[in-house]
Write a structure and sequence with these properties.
Layout (H helix, E strand, L loop, with lengths): L8 H10 L6 E5 L2 E5 L1 H17 L7 E5 L4 H13 L2 E5 L5 H11 L3 E4 L2 H10 L7 E4 L9 E2 H6 L7 H9 L5 E6 L9 E5 H11 L11 E4 L6 H12 L3 E4 L6 H8 L3 E4 L1 H14 L5 H14 L1 H5 L7 H17 L6 E4 L6 H9 L4 E6 L6 E4 L12 E2 L4 E4 L4 E5 L6 E2 L3 H6 L1 E2 L2 E10 L5 E6 L4 E2 L5 E2 L1 H9 L4 E7 L7 E6 L1 H10 L7 H6 L1 H15 L11 E3 L19 H7 L1 H14 L2
Parallel strand pairs: 1-11, 3-4, 3-5, 5-6, 6-7, 10-11, 12-13, 13-14, 26-27
Antiparallel strand pairs: 1-2, 8-9, 9-19, 14-15, 15-16, 17-18, 18-21, 20-21, 21-22, 23-24, 25-26
């Protein structure tokens, strides 16, 4: 498909529907995975768009979506976009207060919700928001919302030239969506992305990937409220890949086995969890010996894997049959392309996957850049980097090493925040807030977030992400956060991976009746101190972690310690554990450590 003519997101919708395919989407029903054709998609989108228009929704009006991943999410999105309205995604996991903030800040007049519980959440706050109408996707008994299924069925049986003309009249410069950033450093801000911003990015972000040549499937399970997932789904759909929706991460393993996607797109947290499961399943003799041998064989053939060729050595084939193929089977078994985005993957995790025969094509971008700035591809792949910048994007490194970006995918600005919009640019270049490096071959590496750099009271700068990524590879660690900004020395706060820690405790006869008692146990403390001591051997003296604080909770988005894409909220963690952190440093002071 010629992508040079892609100007708006509506071009994607019209192209997909114009192809008259029998399978554009798949969704799980009692009778199995049911297809949605391009004709059904068109009818549903037009039906919902007509309802929105009848309620006075038109160009520039905001329509919110509060839902898990499902066909109706995309149908609502296209219905709003074809009218020139602006989509405002809301994470299904956000609280009533958070949802109220987004609805008020964006001025959303209509919201589409998925389930009875999401409807009830919105009903508790509706009178405090500008929301005039609610659409509900499930068949919920209610007098307070319009059933979306009925609206979808009211669309036309064939193409509507008046509707299509309206969709084509939307210009690249028209606002398409307001996506609220995850807010790792403060309150969420609404990034304004135009049709042209997103279309320009979609037109080239998957160049180098051989996708869409046959009836391939991708499982849509990353929240569509996040720009990466939405971008990927748009791009794959445009290329002819069938989207299968998985609304519940608890059903991911089963969905992967049933759908067997040809392309696997995930955030690093998912790849980390898969690796942890492999380590757990290969524990104990003889499995551990076989696993260790297979990993060594894979490492010897890593260069071939990264070059996109399947090693032909007999030892590799045996290792593949015994170990590698089983890992791939857990991801559906048929995936040919593996992509990571949304957060830093970490070199060690990328190397582990390359060792087991899976080259993960890590990409990099931000909500404000629609989102892709750079990506590794099967043609151009370099381990430890995020690939080469896209063809239509310019990047440069500022004097303080911050990565600056310029191009058609860079956003218009922050909704209702002119000062913050001005601060986001310097001489026409967008300031990413990331510390970057371009090598002699043009590959981009991201070292850390500029705001995350830790400056000790001695004036030394420490980049926490590489240290944290190394620690997360240990199956005993769920999340690790390096501390030490304006302190005398760096330390680390660890939230254990409790299933593994509890197994270790039972195997080592460590009694505990609660997680608090478990992490307070001297042998558990010694266990984690040993992990840190081992890591310290490979670090510069000023980077070495001098104290370990093990907490009794796993971090989550619900308690404000993780974002919705599982990135660490440093401010949230430091606020939540401020007393414990202060006590740890005070004890070190009094002991002279």
């Amino acid at each position: 498909m010629d992508r040079t003519g892609l100007q708006t997101l509506n071009d994607i919708f019209l192209a997909v529907c114009g192809n008259r395919r029998e399978r554009v989407m798949l969704h799980k029903r009692a009778q199995g995975w049911m297809p949605i054709s391009s004709a059904e998609l068109y009818r549903s989108v037009v039906g919902v768009a007509r309802a929105l228009a009848s309620w006075g929704i038109g160009k520039g009006d905001r329509v919110a979506i509060l839902s898990e991943n499902r066909p109706e999410w995309t149908i609502t999105d296209f219905a709003a976009l074809t009218l020139g309205a602006v989509t405002v995604p809301v994470y299904a996991t956000q609280t009533a207060d958070q949802t109220s903030f987004l609805l008020n800040d964006s001025g959303a007049r209509v919201i589409a919700v998925s389930t009875k519980s999401q409807l009830e959440k919105v009903l508790t706050i509706q009178r405090h928001t500008p929301v005039e109408r609610i659409m509900v996707m499930d068949a919920v008994e209610t007098a307070h919302a319009v059933h979306m299924q009925g609206l979808m069925l009211q669309g036309p049986a064939d193409f509507d030239p008046i509707f299509d003309a309206c969709a084509r009249s939307i210009a690249p410069g028209d606002l398409a969506t307001i996506i609220y950033t995850s807010g790792t450093t403060g309150n969420a801000k609404g990034a304004m992305l135009t049709h042209g911003n997103m279309a320009s990015n979609i037109s080239c972000s998957l160049d180098g990937f051989a996708l869409g040549s046959k009836d391939e499937v991708s499982l849509s399970f990353l929240p569509l409220s996040h720009v990466t997932a939405r971008h990927v789904d748009f791009a794959l759909m445009y290329r002819g890949v069938v989207l299968a929706y998985c609304p519940d991460l608890g059903q991911l393993a089963q969905a992967l086995a049933e759908v067997q996607p040809a392309v696997f797109v995930a955030v690093p947290r998912v790849y980390e969890k898969i690796r942890q499961q492999v380590i757990l399943k290969t524990a104990g003799f003889p499995k551990s010996a076989i696993y260790g041998w297979a990993l060594a064989v894979g490492r010897a053939h890593q260069a071939e894997t990264l070059a996109g060729t399947r090693p032909s050595a007999l030892a590799w084939k045996i290792a593949d049959r015994l170990v590698f193929s089983k890992v791939r089977a857990g991801m559906g078994g048929k995936a040919e392309e593996f992509i990571s985005g949304g957060a830093p993957l970490g070199r060690e995790l990328a190397e582990w996957y390359a060792d087991i025969g899976i080259p993960i094509h890590e990409g990099y971008g931000l909500t404000e850049t629609s989102p892709v700035i750079a990506v590794n591809t099967p043609r151009t792949h370099k381990l430890g980097t995020v690939g080469k910048p896209l063809a239509n994007v310019e990047v440069r490194i500022a004097e303080d090493s911050e990565l600056l970006v310029r191009g058609p995918s860079v956003f218009r600005g922050y909704w209702n925040r002119p000062e913050e919009t001005r601060d986001a640019f310097v001489d026409g270049w967008f300031k990413t807030g990331d510390i970057g490096h371009l090598d002699s071959e043009g590959y981009l590496s991201i070292t850390d977030r500029k705001k995350d750099l830790i400056k000790t009271s001695g004036g030394k700068f420490i980049a926490p992400q590489p240290i944290e990524n190394s620690l997360k590879l240990n199956p005993l660690i769920g999340t690790a956060v390096v501390l030490g900004d304006r302190r005398k020395f760096p330390a680390v706060l660890i939230a254990p991976h409790f299933p593994v820690l509890e197994d270790w405790a039972r195997a080592n006869h460590v009694d505990f009746d609660s997680r608090q008692a478990l992490v307070a146990n001297a042998r558990v403390q010694a266990l984690y101190e040993g992990i840190i001591q081992e890591l310290n051997q490979n670090m510069a003296r000023f980077e070495r972690l001098k104290r370990v604080l093990v907490v009794s909770e796993e971090f989550s988005e619900s308690d404000g310690t993780l974002t919705h894409t599982f990135k660490v909220r440093r401010r949230g963690i430091e606020l939540r554990y401020r007393t414990l952190i202060d006590e740890m440093y005070e004890k070190a002071e009094t002991s002279g450590g």
